[in-house]
Amino acid sequence: MDLIETIKEKAKQENKIIVLPESYEERTLKAADIALKENLARIVLLGEEKEIMEDASRLDLKHISDARIVNPLDHEKRDEYIDLMVKLRAHKGLTKEEAGEQIKDRLVLATLMIKNGDADGELAGADNATGDVLRPAFQFVGTKPGISVVSGAFIMIFPTGEYGEQGTLLFADCAVNPNPDAAQLAEIAISSAHTAKEIAGFEPRVAMLSFSTMGSAKHELVDKVLEATARVKESEPTLLIDGEMQIDAAIVEAVGKKKAPGSKIAGQANVLVFPDLQSGNIGYKIAERFGKATAFGPILQGIAAPINDLSRGTSVDNIVNMIAVTALQAAGIE
Length: 334
What we know:
Blueprint: H1 3-14, E1 17-20, H2 26-37, E2 42-46, H3 49-58, E3 68-70, H4 78-88, H5 96-102, H6 106-115, E4 121-124, H7 130-140, E5 151-157, E6 168-172, H8 182-200, E7 205-209, H9 220-235, E8 240-245, H10 247-251, H11 253-259, E9 271-273, H12 277-289, E10 294-301, E11 307-309, H13 316-333
Parallel strand pairs: 1-2, 1-4, 2-3, 4-11, 6-9, 7-8, 7-9
Antiparallel strand pairs: 5-6, 5-10
Helix pairs in contact: 1-13, 2-13, 6-7, 8-9
């Protein structure tokens, strides 16, 4: 059984409630139908029931009637959620009138359902920018204890088993932070290690990537990676992590032995932490296009509840996979 199927099987056992705000979006609705058919999660769709069912009929979707449908403009917990919003944003002076307008936004409503315990996770972004998905998540859900930065990881599955964990690696941050400082980069590494273990199911061996390996170059960009690595080693002494390291030293055993003798993870890394968003985003797309890797994600890390953001170029299959991933994240938070 491959990794994606393993994740799906685990998700089925968890029976989590996942809310999909973009019910009007065709790929999302098709993915919801598949997720319901395969029992990956209990699905909540946000929108007007008549419109959703008309779209489902037009697309010949057979299982949408099994979803719970919540109308953002008229639902039984509207007043309860407004009170919760005012409480959570009291320091910003949010009024009931302002909250009543904001809650009409599906992305806001989804996060409030999670905060109130009425849903376990959210998946959006097929039709919304990352900032729009994350803003209400920060406002009403927040980050995990000890984590101040949210990051995005991709699970990369290569057609050969040559590198990583029999061909599977985790890349981060490829989605959120343009230029993390050393402290943020350390948090990204820790979050990525947890994702590798909880979602991909393997013990993480983390390489902190750079254009230098173990002092081969001197530059302030290298210094940032060195400081981040030191921070992780201090806070997570049992985590297998090393850096700074070039990517060939991280994943090719012969190169790792030559460039980083004595390193416990050189040549064997299965988690690659990129120094900034440019390198991470370019790296995963090169791996996907040139290396024929299957990329699924981004899996958002560091939020206090599972709220995942899709690429607007996402596929139906990726949305289905991410519903399963979101369900597993929810199980890990319990």
